[in-house]
Design brief:
Elements lengths: L6 H17 L3 H7 L6 E5 L7 H8 L4 E6 L2 H13 L5 E5 L11 E7 L8 H11 E10 L6 H10 L2 E6 L4 E5 L1
Parallel strand pairs: 1-2, 1-4, 2-3, 4-5
Antiparallel strand pairs: 5-7, 6-7
Length: about 180
């Protein structure tokens, strides 16, 4: 997705995601990622925030969720959602790669339905490796790249190796 995408187009896509999320709640993806109370989570390419609210609920009051997207409309929509839900543990970041987060500060990175659209996957994966704690997990899912294709793309573009394939996601650790 491009940051130049018209706002109406993004909002139409987001509406489709709302219907998808009602049929298949996103929390099941987060269960596979192992997110727990007190964790710090980065939702890279958060879009309209399908994973943000359930992640914020899972990490609880002592945890933190960072919702990053290149699209200003996405950040606006996530901001509206977190205000509506009164979530004080979510921070938004408008960026295409640089998170601005401290080194080794994140327990789990969510890289869901965005890898196929990255303009520089190696740079993004390098940044994600930088912010992940040594025992941190990169949890990935992409409906455009299934199974081995996603695994191979992530392992060849970055400093990660597959450690677990779940029903919905793949978990990677630093090499």
């Amino acid at each position: 997705m491009s940051h130049t995408e018209p706002a109406w187009s993004f909002k139409l896509m987001a509406l489709g995601y709302r219907f998808r999320d009602m049929r298949k709640p996103r929390a099941v993806f987060l269960d596979e990622a192992g997110i727990a109370d007190g964790f710090t989570v980065l939702d890279f390419g958060c879009g309209p925030g399908s994973y943000v609210v359930p992640a914020a609920q899972k990490v609880g009051r002592t945890g933190r969720v960072y919702a990053l997207d290149i699209c200003p409309t996405a950040i606006e929509m996530v901001t509206e959602r977190i205000e509506k839900e009164h979530l004080a543990n979510v921070t938004t970041i408008l960026s295409d790669c640089d998170t601005g987060l401290d080194e080794e500060s994140v327990d789990v990175v969510l890289l869901y339905d965005i890898f196929h659209d990255l303009s520089d996957p190696a740079a993004v994966l390098s940044e994600l490796r930088r912010v992940l704690k040594p025992e941190g997990i990169l949890s990935s899912h992409d409906h455009h790249l299934k199974g081995e294709l996603l695994k191979d793309a992530i392992e060849s573009a970055g400093p990660f190796r597959l450690v677990h394939s779940g029903t919905l996601t793949q978990s990677f650790a630093a090499k």
